[in-house]
Amino acid sequence: MAEKLKIKISIADRVYPLTIQPQQEEGLRKAAKKIEGMIKQFEQSYAVRDKQDVLAMCALQFAAQTEQKGIDKSSEMLEAEDKLKSLNELLKKHLAT
Predict the structure, then answer these.
(1) Which of 8, 47, 49, 62 has its CA 20 to 30 A from that of 56?
(2) What is the SS3 assignment for 20?
(3) Beta-carbon contacts of residue 39 (< 8 Å; ≥ 6 apart)
(4) Band (6; pLDDT cuts 50, 70, 90)
(5) Measured between alpha carbons, how far is 24 from 94 in angstroms, rounded to an integer?
(6) For this chain's UniProt record, which GO biological process terms are given (predicted)?
């Protein structure tokens, strides 16, 4: 089993020490970078002074993206299921003749 890795992630001018599995590092660093970019965007676009408000807006945006991906996947699965049913019906017709 791999040794745990100690890293520091900076978000909204605060440093968070974390102990993680090595394979988690890239994802965590990318997520922190994305959050920092989003914070800057919100601060430039809106008159927000409180970091907590900006972080809440970031959390909402990430949660909404996650939920939308789930909705999109569900819709894609239903569409694929309908296509497979249609294909199955075509195969049954051709095999019956």
Answers:
(1) 8
(2) strand
(3) 11, 12, 51, 54, 55, 58
(4) very high
(5) 51
(6) cell division
